[in-house]
Amino acid sequence: MTAFLVVLTTTILAAAGLVLDGGHALAAKIDALGLAREAARTGAQELDLDHLRSTGTVRLSPRASAAAAREFLREASRTGTASATSTTVTVIVTITRPTQLLRLLGITELTVTATATAQPRTPSSTP
Fold this sequence. Notes:
Elements lengths: L1 H42 L5 H7 L6 H14 L3 E6 L4 E10 L10 E10 L9
Helix pairs in contact: 1-3
Organism: Allokutzneria albata
Protein name: Flp pilus-assembly TadE/G-like
């Protein structure tokens, strides 16, 4: 009977840990995705104005775009990377959260990553 209770208790703790810590991981994933999207949109506002004035076409300033996205993440106190081309900003955000119940089973933290991209839009290209 004791062995059965040990197995049952471990199983219940594992299931509760998956529910509780899985919910926290899902919330962290949503948070990371939102931050990645916001940082990418921030970077997509950094246009190459000289090119726009001379040709009338919109393109990004890659260095300024990536720097603006990284600055957004820094101000939000989050870890991530940002890169940009003349057409797209890509941001990857990583969030690590400590576990609560899964810690009892040896899993001390969960890490989630989210990626988002953004492109500059002109009033005529907005859907």
